[in-house]
Structure prediction request, 380 residues.
Amino acid sequence: MTRNDNQSIRRRDLLTGAAALGVFGTSAPSLTFAAQAANPPARGLGAIAASKGILFGASLAVHELDRDHGERYQELYIRDARILTSELEFKLSTLRPKQDALDFHGADRLIGFAAAHSMPVRAHTLIWDDDVPDWIHRLAPGGISDLLDMHIETIMRRYAGRIRYWDVVNEPIGPWDGKPGNLRAGPFYRALGEDYIARAFKAARATAPSDILVLNEAQCETADENGETFRTSLLALLRRLKDQGVPIDAIGFQSHLKLAATYDLPVFTAFLHEVADLGFDIHITELDVNDSTFPGDIAVRDRAVARMYRAYLDAVLKVTAVKVVETWQLSDATSWMNDPATQARMAIRSNPRPLPYDASFQRKPAWDAIAEAFDAAPAR
Ligand code: XIL
Prediction:
């Protein structure tokens, strides 16, 4: 969730963006629209991706398992996902709602669900300057650096051997804060400066030497000036961290795409190659397509969303350093874009249909687009 989401979306960009990705064009890759999910697919997306050496999965929120749609919700994950990301359960404000209270309820449940279905977990996220409980703002700098060390050690020790990937630091870039390196200035940055990032990764490696440590970032994908600023700032940060020997295994790109934005996929994949050349694996961590400002009937919207998935994945999967692809939830019913706070922040004006399944848990053209992109991808 980022400041840029507040920016209003102009109609001019909408047309530019759709056209840039061939969303309307007849030259876009053809999609075979599947029969609906009454007819479950012979193979899930996870199996299709695995045949190319790619790990596919999605974020999951355990509270969704308790809703009326809980059974249908979990079926999607069992069928399609081979990795789960915690949407909320490992966030600081969930684990530490109060300074002196730890709440492992949701995290334990998510780990239990993943274990029951033999899926690895990405714990999202240990240190994020954006999502912090209020009490942290009252800590002195020394208290914040102690918290950073103690939080990483406590959580990683508790879940030792049960988490494969950790989003150790989320969204370090925030140009609007005007700090050196365009770093985001939340409590951890204010207490420790840029060093909070190195310190977090070093603590993580020391605590869980064989887990995969990820730095996750937003807003790098678009062709506009904001995307360019994110890309150059992140690349510079990664070079500094690498020079200092900071232990990072992979870089996550959230990939919250918008039909209304403009993308230049050759520019973006050239950037991914630069990241890979530094020695990092690449994960696509929170993929979805915001169609909510897009006019027209549902079939048109679904095709446009599917084409954006296909064009984006076709491009990024050519970069063989991309080892993991995850969507942010699987069904429109449980997308964060249905959350009123998110809708206000992102100027969402109509019911979004951002994911491979609709709000009734039926497969949409986006599902086929993702499957076809995996089929077309080079093996790693
Ligand atoms: C979002 C969740 O999906 C929402 O339910 C929650 O209210 C706010 O956070 N980038 C991230 C994720 O890294 O943690 C955010 O998740 C979405 C944007």
